Amino acid sequence: MTSFTVEQTSLDLEAFWMPFTANRQFKAHPRLLVAAEGMYYTASDGRSILDGTAGLWCVNAGHGRREIAEAVHRQLLQLDFAPTFQMGHPGPFELAERLVKLLPADLNHVFFTNSGSESVDTALKIAIAYQGIRGQSKRRRLVGRQRAYHGVNFGGVAVGGIGSNRQFFADLTPGVDHLPHTHDLEKNAFTRGQPQWGGELADALEQIITNRGAETIAAVIVEPIAGATGVLLPPLHYLQRLRDICDRHDILLIFDEVISGFGRLGTPFATQYFGVIPDLVTVAKGITNGNVPMGAVFVRQGIYDTITQATQNGIEFFHGYTYSGHPVACAASLATLDIYEREGLLTRAQQLAAHWEQAVHSLKGAPHLIDIRNLGLLAAIELQPIPGQPGARGFELFRRCFEQGVLVRAAGDSIAFSPPLIIEPSQIDQIFATVAAVLPQLA
Question: What is the pTM of this model?
């Protein structure tokens, strides 16, 4: 690959307002990536960087997949754009048919979006519309969970539970309650797989129902695994208890699988891994291997029928995006699904999970480490915060790992790992050997 330096690229960094970034600090000491192939990025100074995060939880099939690039190229030359409002093109119909075969039960309809944030807001609107159409117009409340991340649109921020994301916006979308999060260091630290303790935390939903009235609640939304907050795992029986409570009170259950979908746990989706079937599933990221922005919402048959059969003529659901089912995104996704199928990537995590677990738990006893948690090809370590400087130690580990040629993700003082599913055991060892070397260097 050709290597570049910041000076050679003649970049002026000022105009771009970077998302979720300390802009002034970054622009003073930038970390620029200029190329990628397989498991590796190339930094602007020419170094190879082992990708321990699949980009941003999304490059499940690895970087630089020629099959996807060629499919996108062909599509741009054949049909660069076509509307899906009262019109159509073959792409989203073919893609939807492929996708629903990966889901269990009757999650057999797909509404296309452009991101995880849009998928979440779409799912929330579908849930509220469904309740109203079937004569339950009082069911407008939503239930999220503390420490949850559901994107950055108004609906997702409302049901999300990360304080910094909600700082200026939490009160702009009323009618939302939050379940307690499932993370308990005292009872579950250094758990391998799902924690034994905590399933009963789902019963907090019953208290919310008692306080608000079941007749006012449209839906509950949770991530099967809370990723962005630091890979918080669902305790045994927790998700099934949520499903049972929702069923008793006629409340819809939404799984946000933007991170856990497309093979991260060794099954196509977390719903199969945990054996719990929600009413709607939101996805993005791995749907196109991160190559083109795209998201989707999977919807059960009864919800789709209720909404689409509510009117004899005309538009049934006034919602959508200019780029819903974009031809290029569909081409990228279809090529991605071909790779997943041909290389067995949606189940490959099963083969690697034991080695992955052993590697991350080999860090136990290292300086500053207060927890390790893992499932499938997801893991996180948690560091003791520096008093008065939350997140500083986590960011320092992230920075030093990058300098040592490994990309990890800091979530406060937790460090998340979610590599491309093509990773080899030797590369797993390299990731955690690098972390082990860096930990003693931290303040």
Answer: 0.96
